[in-house]
Write a structure and sequence with these properties.
The chain is 54% helix and 4% strand. Helix 3 links the parallel strand 1 and strand 2. It starts with a helix and ends with a helix. The relative contact order is 0.07. The model has no long low-confidence stretch (mean pLDDT 81).
């Protein structure tokens, strides 16, 4: 993302932490660095709540980490509470406002997902939805090499390192093309029935 607008809005802060990664993941190096850096009495300033995290659970965890350190969170696109003298009251109102925004953002994301799912169902019914294009074709040399390694007994972790094919992606392709080891089939038979 272009962070210039956010940097401009954060003029005057004593230290900037910038991740050029999606807020969907909490596994962001600069987020971790910021959480390690802050001390009691610090104010963590962000331009918008979704810059910190995209879902309620992640936001709650990050906000709790900030509060545990004795720091407070200030979100620039939320109403300012600077006129309130009592720090505890200001913190309480700030947290209530943030909780409301988190709830609203989470609800909006759910509505978007629901509308998207409904749109896909409708498009499928009309024969217009084709889905994503497969990353690998069945005769892809990289995929075939991964299958060979798997059948020879290599672990999924090692196959991912050797071929660059993500473990979950590789598992989907194995299931799609029925690539199993002998013990995989045995394990399937021994699985308890629901």
């Amino acid at each position: 993302q272009n962070v210039d607008r956010q940097i401009e809005a954060l003029k005057g802060v004593s230290k900037l932490f910038i991740d050029k990664m999606s807020g969907q993941s909490i596994e962001r190096p600069q987020l971790k660095a910021m959480l390690d850096y802050i001390r009691e009495g610090d104010i963590v300033v962000i331009t918008e709540l979704d810059r910190l995290g995209r879902n309620n659970g992640d936001l709650t965890k990050i906000m709790n980490d900030i509060q545990r350190k004795g720091a407070t969170l200030e979100v620039l696109n939320l109403p300012s509470l600077r006129g309130i003298e009592d720090a505890n009251l200001r913190r309480l109102i700030n947290n209530l406002i943030i909780e409301l925004y988190k709830y609203q953002a989470e609800s909006e994301r759910q509505r978007i997902k629901e509308r998207q799912a409904q749109g896909i169902i409708l498009a499928k019914e009309q024969g217009k939805f084709k889905g994503g294009t497969p990353k690998y074709k069945s005769d892809d040399p990289k995929l075939q090499h991964a299958f060979k390694l798997y059948l020879e007994g290599e672990t999924e972790n090692h196959i991912e390192k050797l071929t660059g094919i993500n473990r979950r992606t590789f598992r989907r392709y194995r299931e799609k093309y029925n690539i199993y080891r002998k013990n995989d089939i045995k394990d399937e038979k021994n699985k308890p029935k629901d």
